[in-house]
Amino acid sequence: MNSFFDKEYHPPKAILTRISRRQFLKSAAMSSAISMAPVSLAFANNAGKVDTSQDPWLTLDITMQHLLPSSDTGPGAKEFQAINYLVNLLEEQPIDEEEKQFVRNGIGWLNGYTQKHYQQPFSKLTHDDKEKALRAISKSRAGENWLSTLISYVFEAMLAPSSYGGNPDGIGWQWLQHKAGFPMPEKGKRYYELTAYGNIDVKQEPQQDKDNKAR
Hints:
The chain is mostly helical. The chain is built from eleven helices and no strands.
């Protein structure tokens, strides 16, 4: 594939699963809160390790900020630090490699589209031209899937503990008036680190336990 409009496109299984999860979240508890946010574009038809001011991260950041902009009714992707969450997701978490590649490919396809039609990368476009470009690619199956995947990342950044990169100081929970569970996972005990953490505990069995077993 070399663009969003390639007729040979087949959605990765991981993307279909993520889109289904996003539809569930949107229709469940978040629906009333999300309806208050001025989300651009209708979809019916670890940050410290990278420079998020440069591509590929810049295009992803600008796109997510356009999809869920800051407004008088609530915070947006910028405040949720969705790009930091996405860095953690793509750089550290063991998600499906096909999903990662799809996200990366979409950056090139989007910039290729805007270079062709506007002679500029997506990040340099005006707000109105960004909207037109995203609406145009959303008419393709690949474009719709790519945008749906990014908005799901924004929702996840809004809801996840801050140790995953987004939701600083629980800003998303505060907006939704949600009381999070405790204890909150810390770095080293995040869900994708639990297996390795458990193995370390097994290998480094406390001396007291060894002494008890020996008696």
